[in-house]
Each structure stands twice: as C-alpha cells, then as structure tokens.
C-alpha cells in the first residue's frame, strides 16, 4: 500500500512538472519581448551620420594631403639653398606627423561618437519594439546561430537614420 502511494505521488509530481514546464515554454515563446540581433558592420556603414562624418574626414584629409604634397614639391626645387631645404624638411616632417595623427584620431573619435548615437537610438528602438536584448554581430561571427527572422538590422537602420534626420 505504501509503495502504491509513492508511485501515485511520483506520477502526480511528474505530471505537474511537465505541465509547469509546458506553461513556462508557452509563456516564453509567446512573450512580446524578444532577443534580436543586428549586423554591426552594416549598421555602422549605412548610418547617415557615418557617411556624413566620412565626407567631412575626406575633405580634411584631402586638404591636409594637398598641403603636404605642395610642401614636398617646394622642397624638391633645385634653386633652394641647403639651409632653406633643411628648414622646409623639418616643417614637412612635422606636418606629416600631424597628418598621421589626424588620420588616427579622427577615425577613433568619430567612430566613438557614431556608436554613442547608435546606442542611444537603439535603446529607444528596443523600448518601442519590446526587445529585451539587441545583440550586435560582425557578420554573425559572435552569434553561432540565429534565425533570420530575428535579424532587425534593416529595421534598426531605418529607425536610426530617421532619428538622425530629425524625423
């Protein structure tokens, strides 16, 4: 008789565990909050702010490079004295160092500003769409598998570009 009670109790516990597990899975799968992912590279490269900052950077780069090139051509003149060439060469080296520093710092500083703006817009986007997490991935290397229906890159990109444009 005791054995039958334990068997019945084990059966009831098993059924309750199965029902509870089913309920939890049902609730999780029907939740309006989701985990989604975006392609970081695509998001960054196609963001309007990135394109604008690249144009600004290219203008500044070309201006500085043109100054360097013209100074280099000046140094190549044969009618300059050795002393003048040495002074100009020092100036050239200094300007080239400034140019190299500009290239490095501009890219780093502007990328940081862009990512801060994307993060801000992404937070708003997540709230509006009931996303719990947006995982950033570089060509899906950080995510071993993700269903394509969870890729919201295009949707987020449209959102951040509209926000950036003030819409």
UniProtKB/TrEMBL annotation:
The chain crosses the membrane at residues 6-26. Keywords: Membrane, Signal, Transmembrane, Transmembrane helix. It comes from the Bacteria. SUPFAM superfamilies: OmpH-like. Gene3D superfamilies: Skp domain. InterPro entries: Chaperone_Skp, Skp_dom_sf. Pfam families: OmpH (PF03938). Belongs to the Skp family. This is OmpH family outer membrane protein. It comes from Flavobacterium jejuense.
